[in-house]
Every structure is written in structure tokens, then in C-alpha cells.
Amino acid sequence: MISTNGFQCATCGAFHEGYAMCYGPAAPEIWSTIPEAERDARCVLSSDQCMVDEQYFFVLGRVEIPIIETGEQFVWLAWVSLSAENFNRTCELWEEEGRENEPPYFAWFSSALPYEKSTLHLETILHTRPLGERPAIELQECDHVLYHYQKHGMPLAELQALTERIMHG
């Protein structure tokens, strides 16, 4: 557990109890580029999978980031795009026991997270997890703070700043 009760918000001045420990967009970034009137005809979106124009395929996964001072994890729920072949394989195994034995898939990061440098199109590896668990997203080495945080941890002060950005836009 995080050892603090909360923080004094630098944005609004109020005391907030706790931190945002799991957060993410409801759809991949491409979803926002499609006119709302066309979405039903062009897209299929569930809580964990998305298909656009029968040619773009996405799965929701977890980017797990250790918090340095606490040992807890912050989780970004994020969308990654898969090839049609890997998406179909993921769907085949979705309800299968032992699916975590599947080799990992290459994927492109497809969520625009609130960082100064874009997170779109970062290279990732998607690791299937046991039935009932979302897959793990492993960012590939790159010059992005998200990669650095996943590999080395995020300071509690950055978690506070991130929580403020999430709460206040």
C-alpha cells in the first residue's frame, strides 16, 4: 500500500486522498478520429478488444510501473495494435486455460497517454497472461519516459503529478 494518505494538489490546492493507481482510455486513439455517426458501421469495440474497418486490430493491456518509494504499481491500461494473424490468435485463445504459454506478440502502442512526448506507435511486446488477466505490455527500448519508468520505476512525486493531470485534465 502507498504509505501516504494523499497529497496537497498543486493544481487546485485541495487535499486529495490517495492516488490514481490504474487509469487508461476506453478505446484506442484511432477511435477518436472516426466520426461518431460512422463508428457503429466501421468499428467493433468491447472492454478488451477493438477492430476498425476490419483492418486495424487492438487489444487492451497493462503497462505496469513500479513506484520507487512504495513498491506498489501504477498501471496504465493501454491499447496496442496487433497484426490480423496475431489478433485472430488472441481471439482464439481468449477463453482458453493455459493461454499464458502463447509466445509474446509484437505490437504498436495505440493509446495517447498524457506525456510531453507522444506514446503513439512505440514498439511493444504483448505478453498473454492467464485466463481472466489482461495481457502485459512491455515497451521496447526507446527514448521515452514511459519506457524509463517501466524499467526503473516512477518516483512518488511523478505519480502525484500524473494523478493531478488525470484529475484536472
Automatic annotation (TrEMBL):
<dbReference type="Pfam" id="PF09965">
    <property type="entry name" value="DUF2199"/>
</dbReference>
<dbReference type="InterPro" id="IPR018697">
    <property type="entry name" value="DUF2199"/>
</dbReference>
<protein>
    <submittedName>
        <fullName>DUF2199 domain-containing protein</fullName>
    </submittedName>
</protein>
